[in-house]
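Limitations

Structures in this collection are predictions, not experimental determinations, and the ligand pose is part of the prediction. Treat each record accordingly. The example that follows, with NAP as the small molecule, is included so readers can see exactly what is and is not provided: the inputs are given verbatim, and the output is the predicted complex.
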Amino acid sequence: MRLNNKTLMPCIAVVGASGMVGRELVALLEKRRFPVSLLLPFASGRARQAIKFRGRSLVVPAVDFQSLTDCDLVFLVSSDAVARRLAPGLARRGVWVIDDSSEFRLDPGVPLIIPEVNAEALSPTKRLIAGPNCTMTGLAVAGWPLHREATVREARIASYQAVSGAGRAALAEFFAQTRRQAANLGFGTDGRAPVGRVPRAIALPKAIAGNVFPQVGRFDADGHSEEELKVAAELRKVWGTPNLRVSVTAVRVPVVRGHALSAWLNLTRPLPVSRARRLLARAPGVELHAGQDYPTPLDTAGCWPVHVGRVRTGVDTRELALWVVSDNLLKGAALNSVQIAEHLLRRGWLKRRSR
Ligand SMILES: NC(=O)c1ccc[n+]([C@@H]2O[C@H](COP(=O)([O-])OP(=O)(O)OC[C@H]3O[C@@H](n4cnc5c(N)ncnc54)[C@H](OP(=O)(O)O)[C@@H]3O)[C@@H](O)[C@H]2O)c1
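Predicted complex:
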C-alpha cells in the first residue's frame, strides 16, 4: 500500500474535516498508513478550527474550489449542498471524488460502492464515487454472502439508529437533553415528562433523551421516511437487485454511535443456519458473534467490521433473521470511503498527477 517516493503520493483534501465523519476519516488515513503527500482539510470557515494529522495541527479553512482542483483525491464529508456544488466540477477536471452525502448515490452514472460487495463497479473513467447510507451498509455487507448463496428476494428491516448519524448538532442536542434528564429538569422522576416540559427538539424531530421515535428524515406523502426510502433504493443498487422487495422501519434511539438493525431475509431456497453462519464467518468485513452472544452499539463503537449475531430461522427455513451492528461513522461512512480510495490506489488509478 505504501508508495516509497513522496513525490508520487497523492495530494488529498477532506471537505468537512472538522465534522464527525471528517475527523474519523483523517484519523483513518493515518491509522491505515494511506500514502499522502499533502493533506488539505477544509470546512465551512464559520469557526476557527484545527485537526491533528501525523502529529501536526492543521488549521481547517473555508473550502476553496481552486485548491481542490490541484488535489488528486477529494473526500466530501460535508452536506448534500456542498457535494452538489463541488463534486461534478472536480470530477470533470480529473480529480477523484468520494462523496459521503446522499446527493449522487442513486445517480445511474455514479457508482455507489461498498468494497466488500461491489468494488468491481469502480471504473477509471468514473471519477465521482458515492459512499452509501450508513444504515444499509451493515446489512449490505452481512447479507451479501447469504444473498449470493440463496438469493434474497425480500428484506424486512427495523433499524435502531444512533444520534451521531444525524450530525454534530443532533448529538449536541442529545447530550444537552441527557444532562437535563440527569438533573431531572424537564423530566419526571418516573420517566414521564411533565406536561408542557418535554425538552425542545431542533436538530431532530422529537426529544431523543429517554425516547425512541420512528422518524429519520422527512416523511413522503405515503408515510415513508427519507431514511427508509434511501435504505431500500441503495440496497437494490449496491446488490444490483432492482426487483428486491425491501420494507424498512427506521427508528432513532438514544445511542451515541453505532446503528443496529434487525433483518429478516426471505430467500429463494432454504439455507440452514449452520451454513449461513459458516458463510458469515468467512465473509470479508464481517465479525460473527459466537453462539448466543450478540453485538451492541456500545461494544462495537470504533470497530471496523460489521458485527452480526442472533442468526436464526425466520417464519420458515426460507427465511433468516439476523441482528447487525456497525459503526455509522466508520463502516457507515469514513472507513468505507478510505477503503474505496485504497482500491483506487491498488489498481494504480489514484496517483500524483503531473502539474
Ligand atoms: N454521521 C454519519 O453517521 C454519516 C454516515 C454516512 C454519511 N454521512 C454523511 O457525511 C457527511 C458529513 O456528516 P457528519 O455527520 O460528519 O456531519 P457534521 O458532523 O455535521 O459535519 C459537517 C461538516 O461539513 C462542514 N460544512 C458545513 N457546511 C459547509 C460548507 N458550506 N462548506 C464546507 N464545509 C461545510 C462542517 O464544517 P464546520 O465545522 O465549519 O461547520 C463540518 O466539517 C454528510 O453528507 C452526511 O450525510 C454521515
